[in-house]
Amino acid sequence: MNDLQEKTSKNELLDELEVAMANMPMVDLKVVDRFTEGMYIRELHVPAGTMVTTMTHKKQHPFVVSQGKIMVTSDNEGSVILEAPHTGITEPNTRRAAKALTDTIWTTFHVTNETDVAKIAEEILEPKDMSLISATAGKEISCGYTKSLTE
Q: Disulfide check for 79: which of 57, 66, 73, 108 has CB 3.0–4.6 Å away?
C-alpha cells in the first residue's frame, strides 16, 4: 500500500475531489424519475466531459448504462470504463467518481413503495454533509437526488 492510501481513505479523497469540483462550472444534469409498483427508476443524463461523484449507497441495486461510455472508479469496481449496453449491480457502501467520455445515460433501479424522491434518497443513500462543498462553491449544493423530472 502506498503512503497516500495509508494517510487518506477513498472517501476522504472523494470528498477532496468534490470540494475541488465545487470551484468548477456546475452542470445541471437531466434526471428523469419514473415509478412503478414497488420500484423507483432514476435515469441520469451525463454530458460528455462531465465529472460526477455519487453518494454512498446503502442498498444493493441494479444499474444500466444504456447510452455512452463512462470511466468509473470505486472501491468495489476499481477503475473501469463502462460502455453501453452495460448492466451492473451496485453493492452497499459503494461510492463512485465518474467521468463521461461520451454523452451517457445511467439508470438505477430501487425497490421501494415510496414516491417522494427526498424520502427515497434517505432510504437508499448514506447522509452526507454538503456544507464544505457549498461553502467552496459559494452557494447551496444539494446531493442531486431532490431535483428531477417525472415522466
A: 73
